[in-house]
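Notebook B, p. 112. Complex prediction, attempt 2.
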Amino acid sequence: MRGLLIAVTIFLGGGVFGAVDADSVYPVDITPLMTQAALAQEKSSDPEANLPFLFAVFIITWAGFFGYAFVSSRRQRQMEQEIRAVRAALEEKVRVESSPSTNRG
Amino acid sequence: MIASALMMAMTLYLVFLWVPTEQNLGLSQRIFYFHVPIAWLGMLSIVVVAFSSAAHLITKKEKWDNFAYSAAELGLVFLTLLLISGIIWNKPAWGKWWTWDPKLTTTLILWFIYVGYMMLRAYGPVGSQGARYGAILALIGAIDSVFIYMATSWWRTQHPELLVGPLADEESLLDSRMWLTLGCSTVTFTVLYISMLIERYSLKRGEAEIDKLYHFVS
């Protein structure tokens, strides 16, 4: 869990930094990823125009992983509490079963 | 976990600072480096569930059932993130949030199969009967994974055709730097998936042990 939280922190911090650095733009064509209609539209638009979508995916992906890690660690704490309760119940049961009977005729 | 965190840092650098920007989709194309690895793991997970469930039915060992449950839970997480990232990427690429494209539809079906599996395990019959029903559902999901993977080859779809992976049917137009970044991202997410699966499995095993102890105490 700790490693995942470290990864989330690094990714969130680096992602914010990286997303705003739009200086490294080298034209590379991936035509199959575009329909013809969207191609015509996108050619005339700013490369930074779709930054909010990238940011949204980034945030949601890492919020999802972080949320899952949080739920898992809470489940783990609950499990540890249950282990303590079961251990106490077992010790009590052993104590009761091993104590000598007090009702003697 | 620490290894996956370090690999994530490297992947972060490659995705946001090193790989070139695609000239048509612009910055939104970088969603590709999250979307594809998450897709691969979402589909792999249901196959893991199917094999683990089958192993449980054959060997009757509880560890395989625990493993199947853990993989199903993780698969649901990954597939949910896949659908969300795909929906968000749809808007700048295709102009709308959702279409009933074969690839998207079969992925949504797989998501429902995951949800059905989790509900079955939570509210359905316990013991071997529940595991048997879960195995059937997982097998259907594994078959659906094949449909998802081959959707762009078998049907006319808006989704891009297979550019990477087995049975990719055209020479890839990806830049070499994009190939490297995608490979790194895929390995990183796979390592993350494995470490999360191990954690979830040990948690599930602990829960199963506690249930047994409760029966012993009461």
